[in-house]
Amino acid sequence: MTKTPLLGKTLDELQTIVLDLGMPKFTAKQIASWLYEKKVSSVEEMTNLSKKNRELLSEEYEVGASAPVHEQRSVDGTVKYLFCTPDNDYIETVYIPEEDRATLCVSSQVGCKMSCKFCMTGKQGFATSLTAAQILNQIYSVPERDKLTNVVYMGMGEPFDNLDAVLRSLEILTADYGYKWSPKRITVSSVGLKKGLKRYLDECDCHLAISLHSPFPSQRRELMPAEKAFSIVDVVETLRNYDFSKQRRLSFEYIVFKGVNDSLIYAKELVKLLRGLDCRMNLIRFHAIPDVDLEGTDMDSMIAFRDYLTNHGLFATIRASRGEDIFAACGMLSTAQQQAEKENHDEI
Questions:
Q1: Per-position DSSP letters for 196-263, written without gaps between them
Q2: Predicted confidence (pLDDT) at residue 93 exceeds the cutoff of 80
């Protein structure tokens, strides 16, 4: 019999479970504490529950945590973990240590529907969305979990295309019964799915990052087909209705491609597009992926681009490239694993 994971359950859901099993309502808070504070690996470890209640719970439920099945370590300390889902799909999670931060980049889907030209995950196509349990398991099960200072939803998949599960995981990360993290420690990245964007901003206080990559809609459409349905102009107009001057931060992600979007013409258009928004721009070096005719620009061009933006009122930073020696680009490791398994199967 397949058991249901407790990981990823909100307090309300845990209360429903314990009441259905005939346990006192307060047992739900005890279970939440064992899951999200003590991070146990089995129901049997929940020792302030009676033996009878542990047995009752174990009949249908399990913690639901699973360890990574593979890892790759970079010379710069970055670690990419590969997790296997119950359906034998693969997702990637990346641990990024820095001087004063330890960030975990998590996935929200297996594959992705957005088909961005520069993304290996998009080339996989879409398989399925992750549950809240599978999203949280990435945080729960990495060896560095107690070192983490930040989490970013920038791995495989489009978070707003799996918004229910993403919001549930964010509730647990920030709730008093859960991880008790400040929303300021969490950033969710999106191409800008309009319906999901508005709901996220209305229901969540975590930071937001929008994948931009070109200020010109026609070119953005070539790089990111989602532009056809979710225009960056419309996304920006939606964002103008919200206040980003206080706790919640708005940023834009901009991968800089050599000879494609790295000239000052683009910098000028970005300033024009985002004028009046309280935001920042993260400039990103491109990690090459197979069969894509794009390459990263040189550092001098990136510095000139950054300086133009900052000097014209749009604060910009250059994100340090990490893990280039370990399939750093999102989707590379899981694609390699899938291909290896296919080749093994074909040989059999």
A1: HHHHHHHH--SEEEEE-S-SSHHHHHHH-GGGGTS-HHHHHHHHTTS--SSSS-EEEEEEEBTTTS-S
A2: yes
